[in-house]
Amino acid sequence: MSQADAGQRVFQEALRKGDTEGLRSLLQGMSSCEFNVNSFGPEGQTALHQSVIDGNLELVKLLVKFGADVRLANRDGWSALHIAAFGGHQDIALYLITRAKYSSSAL
């Protein structure tokens, strides 16, 4: 197993558990070559999509801080903002709108 595969597996496991502090440590300690914060999991979601589904604003903010792309669509064509709005996560939707407004490309 390559270092990138191992890093990605550790990242996905911490995400699955909703371990915000563990993910913070992981993201601060790993380089971008060890895992991809925008990779798609087996369910067709990125870490950001899954965090929005779970309604975890703190984790959403952390992932965006470390490069999660708010514009990516999941395998069903839904962006994180679509998921937040559909799921009734107003705080996350407002945060994502704010992030999109200040990014180079709007949603």
Largest sheet: none
CATH class: Mainly Alpha
The value of Rg in angstroms is 13 Å
End-to-end C-alpha gap = 36 Å
CATH topology: Serine Threonine Protein Phosphatase 5, Tetratricopeptide repeat
Low-pLDDT ranges: none
Protein name: NOTCH regulated ankyrin repeat protein
InterPro entries: Ankyrin_rpt, Ankyrin_rpt-contain_sf, PP1_Regulatory_Subunit
GO cellular component, one term: cytoplasm
Keywords: ANK repeat, Developmental protein, Notch signaling pathway, Repeat
Structure notes:
The protein is mostly helical. It is built from six helices and no strands. Helix 3 packs antiparallel against helix 4. It is globular and about 35 Å long. The longest helix is centred in the first third of the chain and has 15 residues. Helix content is 58%, strand content 0%. The protein has a single domain, classed as Ankyrin repeat-containing domain (Serine Threonine Protein Phosphatase 5, Tetratricopeptide repeat, Alpha Horseshoe). GO terms for molecular function: enzyme inhibitor activity; phosphatase regulator activity. This is NOTCH regulated ankyrin repeat protein. Keywords: ANK repeat, Developmental protein, Notch signaling pathway, Repeat. One of its GO terms (biological process) is branching involved in blood vessel morphogenesis. Belongs to the NRARP family.
Question: What is shown here, in short?
Answer:
The protein is mainly α and 107 residues long.
Task: Give the helices and strands, then pairings.
Elements: H1 3-17, H2 20-29, H3 47-53, H4 57-65, H5 80-87, H6 90-102
